[in-house]
Amino acid sequence: MSHSGSHPGARLRALVEEDVVSVPGAFNALVARAVRDAGFRAAYVSGGATANVAGFPDVGMLTMIEVCRTIREIADASMLPVIADADTGYGEVECAIRTVVEYERAGAAALHVEDQIFPKRCGHLDGKELVDAQEFCQKLHKMEAARISSDFMIIARTDARHVTGMEDAIARANAYREAGADAIFPEGLQSEKEFATFAKGSPGLLLANMTEFGKTPIIPVARFKDLGYRMVIHPLSMMRLAMGEVVRGLRDLKESGTIESSLDRMQTRAELYELLNYEPGKEWFYPDGRR
């Protein structure tokens, strides 16, 4: 495997060594640009958000190649290290191996893969089923070996907390680390105390999921740092904000025949052009200077 400081995985590793990293979800390239312009240092591609904007629920309906297109667009638009959701790896070991290669080729810095049985469920819903822990370890070992660069990060997510309990979640996490996972993502924890308990039981690099309207209370990024977590994703926040305004705007347009009442909440034409680094009448360049 190659090792290069320019690899997005190397950049992500350097960030988490420096401090806790707040990672907003970007569901398209324009949002990814906004994430970068707001001063964030990494972006997240949510499997749920990617499915939702395609018109599907988060039940594994999209193909790996469809998600790779989103990864590529967001990585190119933001120039940030991208953590990407790989659900269950899109199948058995052979499929998971290809997922590692294709995600890395698409420009991702890291992926996370979960120990649910396909078809998976949103991590904050009940009724989930787990794969055998040893089988998942074997999958992780093969995925780790398939990386193009050793900088590419493989994050193992466990959904065991609400299936078999916290003790099994911690045991699985430690087994997953031994199998080659660079970091652990405990899904669906319900309190700061649970996050602290998990971090104590599975020391090492940890990712926390700060999603709204689920099992996890709202916890600030700085507090997650205190609890032992170095990456905090906000997978659906921007999509929920955007869709809230879309629904309200459509309602107003339907009722009044005009969008005027929403104008003060819209991104202006000038603001859009600034975000795109576009000036009418002048040649446009990619953010990194490419034509």
Word description of this protein:
Helix 4 (64-78) packs parallel to helix 5 (93-106) and helix 6 (133-145) runs parallel beside helix 7. It contains 11 helices and 8 strands. With 291 residues, the chain is an alpha/beta fold. Strand 5 (153-158), helix 7 and strand 6 form a beta-alpha-beta unit. Strands 2-3-4-5-6 form a 5-stranded parallel sheet. The two termini are 31 Å apart. The protein has 2 domains: 8-235, TIM Barrel (Alpha-Beta Barrel), CATH 3.20.20.60; 242-275, no CATH class.
Q: Taking Cα atoms only, what radius of gyration do you get, to the nearest Å?
A: 19 Å
End-to-end separation in angstroms reads 31 Å
The CATH level-2 architecture of the largest domain is identified as Alpha-Beta Barrel
Report the principal-axis shape: globular
Going by CATH, the homologous superfamily of the largest domain would be Phosphoenolpyruvate-binding domains
Tally the helices.
11
What's the rounded overall pLDDT mean?
92
N-to-C SSE series? HEHEHHEHEHEHEHEHEHH
Structural class label: alpha/beta
Tally of strands: 8
The strand order across the widest sheet is 2-3-4-5-6
Describe, in short, the structure shown.
The chain is of the alpha/beta class and 291 residues long.
List keywords for this structure.
single chain; 291 residues; alpha/beta; TIM Barrel; 2 domains; five-stranded parallel sheet; three-stranded parallel sheet; 11 helices; 8 strands; globular
